[in-house]
Amino acid sequence: MRVELDGVTLEVEDHGEGVPVVLLHGFPLSSAMWTGVRTAVEQVARLVTPDLRGFGASDKPAGGYTMEALADDVVRLADRLGLARFVLGGHSMGGYVALRVAAAHPERLAGIILVDSRAEADTVEGRARRDASIERIRRGEAVAYLDEFVPNLVGATTRARAPRLLAELRGIAAEVPDHVLIGCLSGMRDRPDSTPVLASLDVPALVLAGEEDAITPPESARAMAATLPRAELMLIPQAGHTPSVERPIPTAEAVMAFLRQHFPPPPASIRPRARRPEIEPEEP
Ligand code: MLT
Where are the alpha helices (DSSP H) in the chain? Predict the structure, then answer.
């Protein structure tokens, strides 16, 4: 569905019943990265997966790609959907955005899920690499940049055994316009250190990472889980940076187990009527 947010319209999937869970995709992808886990997670939650501005079928305005601006879109989306408190999850760049939501509006978070992400800001070398990528895209070399970057989104096992997945990710990335690539690379380069946010996030947290992730290695996941007061760490074997794409079944199982443990559905006797019927009534 389309959700209008005062100046930008986002494409949003919103299905299922239960605790509201908003999952944010990473760079340079779209909510399509959650396709393999969607049906399972919707068994235990109301799952909301937006295409962030600039990605998928959402509007692609000229600006607004700092992590804070993307976080502001998420909060306005939650307002529009009537979600006062929700579990917020993010993959990689989506995690950077989730931590900016946590910094600005901690009262909105019932829980947090960080998938192959990190809390630290870019290092000096990391910032220089972003600058070089931005220069390359400005020179008209976005295709070559993405051809080099996208293979890093999966691990060695997927590259060897499931090259089709890599082609799917390359196809999603191909839809991202140059100004959005540049906007997000600048936004990620300039993001602040979110480590101080972690220690004060006293909500259930799931930190999930592919064991073969080379972009945000498992050490980043371990560090976040050690700092968050109520975190559990789950490493997915034979997955790289995108476990929801590479190993959707163990990824979905980890998310479902976390949600079932911390946000169990109320007993049937006090459960409110379903928000929407499972099956539409037949026409007379
Ligand atoms: C992502 O997967 O969202 C990005 O690769 C993260 C990053 O470049 O820091």
Answer: 35-41, 67-80, 93-104, 124-138, 142-149, 156-161, 163-174, 178-189, 195-199, 218-227, 243-246, 248-262
- The ligand 1 atom nearest the CA atom of 91: 3
Q: How many CB atoms lie within 10 A of CB 185?
A: 23
Q: What burial class does residue 1 get, using C-beta atoms within 10 Å of its C-beta: 0-12 exposed, 13-18 middle, 19+ buried?
A: exposed
Structure tokens at 215: 């972009």
Pocket test for ligand 1, best of 93, 122, 129, 244 (most atoms within 8 A of CB): 93
Per the CB < 8 A criterion, the answer to whether 25 and 49 are in contact is: yes
pLDDT in tens, 65-95: 999 999 999 999 999 999 999 999 999 999 9
Q: Is the pLDDT of residue 282 over 60?
A: no
Angstrom CA distances, 51 to 29, 132, 176, 257, stand at 9, 26, 12, 25
Q: At what angle do helices 124-138 and 178-189 cross, to 10 degrees?
A: 160
Ligand 1 pocket test, pick from 99, 215, 242, 245 with the greatest ligand atom count within 8 Å of Cβ, gives 215
pLDDT tens, residue by residue, 109-135: 999 999 999 999 999 999 999 999 999
Residues 6+ apart with CB under 8 A from 242: 26, 29, 33, 91, 116, 153, 154, 169, 210
What is the per-residue pLDDT across 206-250, written as a single tens digit (0 to 9) for each?
999 999 999 999 999 999 999 999 999 999 999 999 999 999 999
- Structural contact between residues 202 and 127, judged by C-beta atoms closer than 8 angstroms: no
